[in-house]
What we know:
This protein has about 290 residues and is an alpha+beta fold.
Amino acid sequence: xxxxxxxxxxxxxxxxxxxxxxxxxxxxxxxxxxxxxxxxxxxxxxxxxxxxxxxxxxxxxxxxxxxxxxxxxxxxxxxxxxxxxxxxxxxxxxxxxxxxxxxxxxxxxxxxxxxxxxxxxxxxxxxxxxxxxxxxxxxxxxxxxxxxxxxxxxxxxxxxxxxxxxxxxxxxxxxxxxxxxxxxxxxxxxxxxxxxxxxxxxxxxxxxxxxxxxxxxxxxxxxxxxxxxxxxxxxxxxxxxxxxxxxxxxxxxxxxxxxxxxxxxxxxxxxxxxxxxxxxxxxxxxxxxx
Length: 290
């Protein structure tokens, strides 16, 4: 089996739990995922099956889309609902201030990762250090938010819940957006809910639930849930003939008239791997097993 499962991860399980589920259903060990979702998040989790795990770097580098709820009026130690959470003193912002401040996040900027994140420094995971009471001083990272639309505002006596549709590049922490929005508005803020609606070219409307995967596996039809890796790779394609494909799969470089840069390399419609064209030569980067 080779491909990607567009899994609709529910709230609660970890992304690794979903990998374990696919390992159990397929009987395969070579299973991974492209882009972690926290336990409190749901939505599109691309699960890589078989040799598709070799292409996780390419599949995680694309754009992502989220449906998120930011709660203003409170702060959270983890920047999300996991908490602990406490009330922030002060007045709640009005609708205009919220919309204008959110609009200021669109573009490329330096973002501070959450203290409770999987980022590492000196071999130490940030969340482990934070749990031990010694949060790491994580460096800022350049991220890009392509668009951010306010979908709904709900007000309570002590809070404002702001539901947004956010499109962004890889490495963007929506938790950090919630935290920074609260800081800019002096109201406090944390991520109350998160659902990923697009990732790696996959959409939530086409996603399969864990329950449905179990049904397909029981009927011996699990391969119906697989999406072709070739259809998802955000790379130009370069086709080889039989002789060229033999050399490529054996790790040899060969002459190429393709444009410079990285390509998805195929022969007779079958993905062979990833290669880079430099100065008229195609160099194999990753070769999939035959």
